[in-house]
Each structure stands twice: as C-alpha cells, then as structure tokens.
Amino acid sequence: MAAGLLSASAWQRLQAADVLLAVAPEPEWLEAFEIVGVEPRDVADLPVGQRAGLLVEEAAAGREVVWWGSPDGDPGLTDALAEHLSRRAVAGYPPEVEVITASHDVPGARLIDLVRVMDVLRSPGGCPWDAEQTHESLLPFLLEEAHEVIEAVEHLDGPGGRDHLQEELGDLLLQVAFHARVAEEHTGEPFDIDDVAAGIVAKLVRRHPHVFGDAQVDSVAEQEAAWEQLKAQEKPTRAGFEGIPTTLPALARAQKMLGRVVKAGDDPALAVPAAAQGDEVAEALLAAVLAAREAGVDAEATLRAALSRLEPPT
C-alpha cells in the first residue's frame, strides 16, 4: 500500500510496540513512521533464520515486538519462525504470536504492485530485455495488445470469453505502465505513471461538469455536444483533421475524417468525390464508410465481423 495507509488498530499496535523489526523499509514508510514516533530496526543484513530467532528472543524477554512485513512476503521466515517457536513450546513458554492485517486493499491497489514490478524489471539487476526497451521499440506490442483486446471483446460471449478479456486488458495495461516507466528516465522532461493518471483524472473531471460541477445536461446528445465544445476550448488551435492518427486502419480513419467534416458543417457527400478524385474504387469505399456513419455503424468493426464469418468454424 501507499505509505501511511494503515488501519487505526495497526498504527496503535506499531506505536505501542517495544521493538519494530523490518527488512529495508521503503523511504516513504520511514517518513510515515517518523511522524508517529516509530523507529524500526532494519535487519536486512541478517539471514532469515536469525531474523526469526531475534523475533522470538525479543518476545520471550517480555517485550512486544512487531515484524513489518516485506513486499516480497518474507520467504522462509514463517518456516524459520515455526522452528524457533517449536523449541520454545518444548520448553513450556512459547511467546504469543498474532497476525494483524495492517490494511485492506483499496480499489486499484494491484496497480501499485504493477508499478513496483515494472520498476524492478527496469532497474539494475532486473530484466536485460526490459531494460533496453524504448518508446519506439514497444510500439508494435502496444498495437498488437490493443488489437487483441478488440478481438477479446468481439468474442466475449464465447467459452472463457471474460477470462480472456481480463487477460488481454492486463497485457494492454502493462504497455501503459511500461511506457510510463521508460518516460521516468528521460533526462530533460521526465514523467511517471502518477503524472499520466493525474492528467486523465483532471481531464475527466474537467469534461464532466454535469457530474463534478453545477452544469446540467438533459440528454446524451447534449452531453456529446458539450464534450465537443469543451474539447474545442481546450485546443482552440486544432483545425481540420488534426488529432486523427495517421496509423489508424483506413476504414476507421475515413470514418473519423468524415465525422470531422460533418462537425465542421460541411456536406460529407461532397467530400467523397473530392477525396476520390476520379478513383472509382476509392469513391465506392468512401461512400460505404459514409453510409456506415449515417447508419450509426462502425465501418471497421462491421467489416471485421463480416470477415470473421468467412473463417471456418472451430
């Protein structure tokens, strides 16, 4: 969990403890401990068996000792602790052991784990392949994972569809975390995953004044119009087809561009022959995209669905 996010009972137990043992606590947690007057003893230099022995010895001496769990789960500590406690049990006076859940995960807690894992992979001693990746080298994976999410959604009703979608969304989320981690290392203009999240949170709040402010909308159409107006205010210099990625599949890009023509108040039927310039095939394709838009249909998804029907059943 983020530093400081403990339950009240956990903070009380920490403050009441005579001894707090921990393995390389993170600097953010050290600051939080200092604020409440708690000073942990770092036992990172001790083998796991000695850590367990120290725990039992401190408790057997009548002191209340707390072990601060490590992010890796302290492998081997439970077995070592059981061995020491077994010896004490034979002697007839084993210390009392109590496990306290310091906090319950809030929604999004696993995202913090993802950021930490990505940091380990990218840092010295991590994965050589991850360490050498750049924004440019990751682009094929970003594109591939986005397409796999689309495919998973389109087969959501099939066997294992929801599990498949969950997995593919995780793969796509990894790409966002990976790019953000790479961005942290930029020498001139670094940013991190928190900056990315803060930016989209601010945008969502800003573009939903009917939810987070006192604006009022009475229909979806009004909301869409208000959204476009807010976008125009935020980017007053954007004109024409700026902002429509050139890397979009041609059908999807055509539908976006024709939609921009409509929003500009121009007749899209006139834009079709102007773009085709006598190419009959291009004109037919653009006319089909325009028909799809007027019918409220996604041309790209419609063609993709039609192509899937050509595939032999599995």
Automatic annotation (TrEMBL):
InterPro entries for the chain: 4pyrrol_Methylase_sf, MazG-like_dom, NTP-PPase_MazG-like_N, NTP_PyrPHydrolase_MazG
Segment forming the signal sequence: none
Pfam families: MazG (PF03819)
Domain NTP pyrophosphohydrolase MazG-like: residue ranges: 133-212
NCBIfam families referenced in this protein's UniProt entry, alphabetically: mazG (TIGR00444)
Name assigned to this protein: MazG family protein
Species name: Spongisporangium articulatum
